[in-house]
Specification:
The complex is a heterodimer of chains A (about 100) and B (about 700).
Chain A: E1 3-5, H1 17-20, E2 26-28, E3 33-35, H2 46-49, E4 55-57, H3 67-78, H4 92-100
Antiparallel strand pairs in A: 1-4, 2-3
Chain B: E1 3-9, E2 19-25, E3 28-34, H1 52-56, E4 66-68, E5 77-79, H2 82-100, E6 105-109, H3 124-130, E7 134-136, H4 142-152, E8 168-172, H5 176-179, H6 184-192, E9 196-200, H7 206-210, E10 213-215, H8 222-235, H9 241-247, E11 248-249, H10 251-258, H11 263-270, H12 274-286, E12 290-294, H13 304-317, E13 327-329, H14 340-344, E14 355-357, H15 361-366, E15 377-381, H16 385-388, H17 392-399, E16 405-410, E17 422-425, E18 434-436, E19 443-447, H18 460-470, H19 482-488, H20 502-508, E20 510-512, E21 536-537, H21 583-588, E22 591-594, H22 610-616, E23 621-624, H23 626-631, E24 639-643, E25 648-655, E26 663-665, E27 702-707
Parallel strand pairs in B: 6-15, 7-14, 8-9, 8-12, 9-10, 11-21, 12-13, 15-16, 16-17, 22-26, 23-25
Antiparallel strand pairs in B: 1-2, 2-3, 4-5, 4-17, 18-19, 19-20, 22-27, 23-26, 24-25, 24-27
The chains are: A alpha+beta (about 100), B alpha/beta (about 700).
GO molecular function (chain B): iron-sulfur cluster binding; metal ion binding; molybdopterin cofactor binding; oxidoreductase activity
Keywords (chain B): Iron, Iron-sulfur, Metal-binding, Molybdenum, Oxidoreductase
Protein name (chain B): Anaerobic selenocysteine-containing dehydrogenase
Chain lengths: ~100, ~700
């Protein structure tokens, strides 16, 4: 069933998630990360480390976030794997504050 | 608002025993997460336990003692008090003991919770004192343990953290990512350092998909492969002569025996090409450090014990034990200085005890298996046999007996609890304290109690205190507090616990046993195997004593072992049910069925909970190869009936080339109520025992599948 990165990651891309993933199932592009659903083992280790709470179990997604299941599947097939942390995007801190406000 | 993070440990029968942080607000657990400080479990839990608080607060929890008010199995109960429940149990048991003796009472349990004080052995002292029938619990790794003991003794084997140094890793019948997932980062680090990962499994599991080499194998034929590896290693001069001479016994006899098991023979049995068998043997023997991690599934067929005997010979043969990260990993549980006699109290047993193997529960209750006196009362805790035990139909008939007084201690009204006369409410791990061993790493853990028990739920330790009191027992041993039991559960004077205090353990939640560091430790570099000879025994001296189940699995009782003659040399025992060994049966039932652990369940745990059902699938799926499905006109998602000479169950079909042709896969753990016709895969599984240790033979069965 896999976990899913949602749009809360857009503009932040802290990539803390990749530091805990045991199976290297994160992929990345210039805006956010994605989870390869075929490799994800549902351990959920990435959920608490995400500074903006962008990652969610697919079975728990709100109706307006369900489309992110397919987006993760499609984009993870098109983008490279990321295995170590990147610097957050320049907009990250501002966006995190906005999201937690 | 009072908010705390309480350090605990996962209660489940899984090798990983994760360190858990429970967030508690105003006395309520609101979340659990992995403890990032734990060196092995590293801050992650799993699909089963990520929402453990939902299990605790499920509206289906049993929170009060219940008494049956409808017909057996109707699930109609009324609330009673603990005093009434204990009073009735004591009265019934005293009557049964007076008329038929203690043997007419049968305990039935396993590792629904794995804590040292609430788990495997919590009821043993009481049932030993009552002289009840001994419950021989060979659910898991019993064939493997007997074989392992006979070959290399009760050694922890290779430290799972030493795998980072391995260069050749074989996961044999082990789906690490579903059933041992916290070991994976150590394997992954080895691969980053150039190790090759080989997975031997009939199914291209999620672990096999990530391996460098997946070797599909016909179910139940692993012994032929292991013996062929010995054959090739001997024939091609890949033996570590020095190691064999110094630290093993029986090499010449083994070499002679293995001469029969050619790569061609093994290929015909296993379905693996000869070239691949040769390559595996050569790579394994010449890529040090080489390590084998065996999963529980490797024992689940007619020759399961001898398969593990052969595999356990391999590391000594090539001198793998001389390297850090070389050797064999089975169960590091043997490293923990658990005070087993103090937990089981075999000294309380009468001189002779009657023994009933847990896999024979159904026929024992129906009377098909002669029992004199018959079982008149069944006491179930930490287990759900209706969901997990073979001969399900017989068990159902047995549990329906009006004259059988059944008591079940549980979190939920399981398929088994439904048949109880009295149901008792049990606490979950957040509501109790315990000390935890692991069978997948070398950390002793402490589970701090996070919240007060819900309703009138009690821990198993408290349950047995109450039973002892109701039965009029006055030995103070039966009334020790949990803290006293924890204190007595380990040999604190053992060198592996030197410098460890219980207070430190409680505060930190875990502590690594004082073993040498994983980066330096080759446990059998200089031999020192805990066997009768002190060597790796290719030819087993213990075999002379005949077949046995390790006493840990039978309340500490050493008597009445089955004692079948055991050949001291490893050999191949073909499956009971296969095209090659039972062609007539295969004419009617041509497919081999295996029932591995479901990714989202822990045996039958979580088979009733919404989050795990949402992730595993609400209903039992059976995976078939597309060609086998096409031959039968079965389509993806179609309703199917799976059947053999023993029974039938229904499911829906999933088609995947990840399974071998001729093999079907039914992940186990679904409850009867989530199957279309109320039966699970265990309506079909065979009652036969494996050759050693009376392990089950669930991967040794033929079936046919048709559209329903």
């Amino acid at each position: 069933m896999a976990y899913v990165v949602t749009d809360l990651c857009c503009g932040c891309r802290y990539t803390e998630c990749v530091t805990v993933c045991p199976v290297e199932c994160f992929h990345v592009d210039e805006t956010m990360t994605y989870i390869d659903p075929d490799n994800c083992i549902d351990c959920g280790g990435c959920v608490p480390v995400c500074p903006v709470g962008a990652i969610q179990a697919s079975y728990l997604l709100a109706p307006d976030k369900v489309s992110w299941i397919e987006i993760n599947r499609a984009r993870s097939a098109e983008t490279p794997t990321i295995i170590s942390k990147l610097p957050p995007l320049p907009t990250a801190e501002e966006r995190r504050k906005a999201l937690s406000a | 608002m009072a908010r705390d993070a309480v350090i605990g440990a996962c209660p489940h029968d899984c090798p990983d025993t994760c360190s858990i942080l429970t967030t508690v607000e105003d006395g309520k657990a609101i979340a659990v997460r992995g403890n990032p400080d734990h060196p092995f479990t590293q801050g992650r839990l799993c699909v089963k336990v990520n929402n453990y608080q939902d299990r605790v607060y499920s509206d289906r929890r049993v929170l009060y003692p219940l008494k049956r008010v409808g017909p057996k199995g109707s699930g109609q109960f009324a609330r009673i008090t603990w005093d009434e429940a204990m009073g009735e149990i004591a009265e019934r048991w005293k009557g049964i003991i007076a008329s038929d003796g203690g043997q007419a009472i049968l305990p039935y349990s396993y590792l629904g919770t794995q804590g040292v004080i609430n788990g495997l052995n919590v009821g043993d002292p009481l049932f030993n004192k009552l002289g009840a029938t001994v419950s021989e619990r060979t659910f898991c790794d019993s064939a493997s343990c007997t074989a392992y003991m006979m070959t290399i003794g009760h050694t922890p084997g290779v430290d799972p953290e030493s795998f980072v140094h391995s260069k050749y890793i074989i996961l044999w019948a082990c789906n690490t990512l579903s059933t041992n997932s916290h070991h994976w980062p150590f394997i992954e680090r080895a691969r980053k350092n150039g190790a090759k990962l080989v997975v031997i499994d009939p199914v291209r599991t999620r672990t096999a998909r990530l391996a460098d080499w997946h070797i599909p194998i016909r179910p139940g034929t692993d012994g032929a492969l292991a013996l062929a590896l010995i054959n090739i290693i001997v024939k091609e001069g890949l033996v570590d002569r020095d190691y064999v001479e110094k630290h093993t016994i029986g090499f010449d006899a083994l070499a002679e025996r293995a001469a029969d098991y050619t790569p061609e023979f093994a290929s015909a049995e296993t379905g693996i090409p000869v070239e691949d068998i040769l390559t595996l043997a050569r790579e394994y023997a010449t890529t040090p450090p080489a390590v084998v991690r065996i999963g529980v599934a490797v024992e689940r067929h007619a020759g399961g014990g001898q398969t593990v005997r052969a595999i356990a010979c391999l590391p000594a043969l090539i001198g793998a034990w001389t390297h850090v990260g070389g050797g064999l990993l089975q169960l590091p549980i043997w490293a923990f200085p658990v005070n087993w006699p103090g937990l089981m109290r075999p000294d309380l047993q009468p001189e002779t005890m009657r023994v009933l193997n847990t896999w024979r529960l159904g026929p024992a209750l129906t009377g098909e298996e002669p029992m004199d006196p018959p079982i008149r009362s069944l006491f179930v805790y930490n287990a759900n046999p209706m969901a997990m035990v073979s001969q399900q139909q017989k068990l159902e008939a047995g549990l329906a007996r009006e004259d059988l007084f059944t008591v079940v201690s549980e979190h939920f009204i399981t398929d088994t609890a439904k048949y109880a006369d009295i149901v008792l409410p049990a606490t979950t791990q957040l509501e109790q304290k315990d000390i935890m061993f692991s069978w997948g790493h070398l950390y002793l853990s402490y589970n701090n109690q996070a919240i007060e028990p819900l309703g009138e739920a009690v821990s198993n330790t408290e349950l047995f205190r109450r039973l002892a009191k109701a039965l009029g027992i006055d030995d103070p041993f039966f009334f020790r507090s949990d803290d006293e039991m924890i204190e007595a559960s380990m040999d604190w004077s053992s060198p592996v616990l030197e410098g460890v205090t219980l207070e430190d353990l409680k505060a930190k939640g875990y502590i690594r046993l004082n073993m040498p560091a994983a980066d330096d430790w080759a446990p059998h570099r200089d031999g020192n195997f805990p066997t009768p000879s002190g060597k790796c025994e290719f030819s087993s001296t213990m075999a002379a004593g005949g077949n046995f189940v390790v006493p840990l699995f039978r309340q500490g009782y050493g008597g009445s072992q089955s004692g079948e003659t055991v050949d001291p040399l490893p050999h191949y025992i073909a499956p009971n049910e296969s095209k090659r060994t039972s062609p007539d049966l295969a004419a009617s039932y041509p497919l081999s069925l295996i029932s591995p652990k479901s990714h989202a369940f822990l045996n039958s745990n979580y088979g009733n909970l919404p989050a795990q059902l949402a992730q595993a699938g609400e209903e039992q799926a059976v995976i078939l190869h597309p060609d086998d499905a096409a031959d039968r006109g079965i389509v993806s998602g179609g309703a199917i009936r799976v059947f053999n000479q023993r029974g039938a169950f229904e499911a829906f079909a999933t088609l995947s080339p990840d399974v071998l042709r001729g093999v079907v896969v039914a992940p186990a753990g679904y409850w009867q109520r989530s199957n279309r016709r109320g039966a699970t895969v265990h309506a079909l599984t065979p009652p036969a025992f494996a050759d050693l240790g009376r392990g089950p033979t669930f991967s040794d069965m033929l079936v046919e599948v048709a559209s329903a």
